[in-house]
Amino acid sequence: MRYEAVLFDFDGVLADTEPLHFEAWRDALSPLGIRLNWDFYRSQCIGICDDELLELLATQSNRPQTTLRLRQQMPVKQRLFLAKAEAAPPVPEQVISMIKDLISYRLAVVTSTSRLEVEPVLRAAGILESFQCVICAEDVARHKPDPEPYLEAARRLGIKHGLVVEDSVAGEAAAKAAGFEVLRVASVAEVPRRVRERLGVP
Prior knowledge:
Helices cover 45% and strands 10% of the residues. With 202 residues, it is α/β, with parallel strands linked by helices. It is globular.
């Protein structure tokens, strides 16, 4: 089947950023008495928007914290994340090559992450300009699992049919609700092979 476009989630699909997000949140929230652990973060915090994430993280404090207080740490977390991403670039070379080989497709990134944490990583990898559309948290009122992010991407791309590559339950639900076919992946490492196989791109 020939798709009009390929739409990618960002964290855990194009970039192995989830460990970096975890480390940045862990370091930013430690002064507030929140001892974040990877098992909790991996099982509960991946694939959701910042508002939901902050509500969850507030429950991990050893003293009462409001989501407003945690939100005040967002700039700290973002600085930590970008520094970590610069020190250890999270987009694998195989993903970069794959994106460059998909030049005949319209491409989009659809994520619940803020633009500040997405575009610098894509730019550093040299693939930001490969995407005709980048939908971030700031671009929609409702986030995954609501279909709005994917519907907005479809509107901007001018498409009705496309393949979505996702790694989370919320992302898969959003894409299916928007009428897209979904390729569910378990890790960034398998994305290039799985996408090439699905599209018939060598």
